[in-house]
Write a structure and sequence with these properties.
CATH topology: Rossmann fold
Distance between the termini: 24 Å
Shape: globular
Structural class: alpha/beta
CATH architecture: 3-Layer(aba) Sandwich
CATH class: Alpha Beta
Strand order of the largest sheet: 3-2-1-4-5-7-6
Amino acid sequence: MFFNQDSYDQLQVPQEYRDIFNETSLKIQQQKGLTEEQISAIQKRGYFLVKLAQQANVKNIVEVGTAQGYQFYTFGKYFKDLESTGIVYSCDLRDVRNERMNSLFLKECFYVNGNSEKLSNSISSKTKIDMFFIDGAHQKGDVLSDIENLKHLQSDNCIWVFDDYDERFGIYEELKLLEEKHPNTSVVNQAHKKAKYSNNMLIVWGKM
């Protein structure tokens, strides 16, 4: 599977992964006024990143920006289905996680109420992270700060995924520089083609 725009657009999401989206994120997307088509496009992200993790044989994941836990618990299901010892570590400044989902993935999901620095200090330096999903603060410098806080944990063949790669956000210029600097990257738009704004994520293969 190539992890590009075509593969995202053509992806069919299994019902059990749609259920996680519906329970954690659907109401929020509806409150934003999104159409069913637009919501259908956005909900693919969770399973798309799971497929990426499967392809790369990811053992441990770090996420910055938990929110209600859509991606957090989607990754948790990935590890639970594998019956592996893998863990997804996540942090946010506000704890608004879905309580029922949290109870389903107690072994697979580790949460810290705080920023990426606090999360980093909560993970053993011996733990190697194969995938980073960065979806935290969006002001200029925030992404670079998250990378600096977490990069000592990266494995030799890690993947970094940055959400909200869009000119609307302060992080745009630093993500643009990352794309230009790294030889192996791709950009995928999660938004439906009829959406007012793009909703890009930048995927970077390799260490920072």
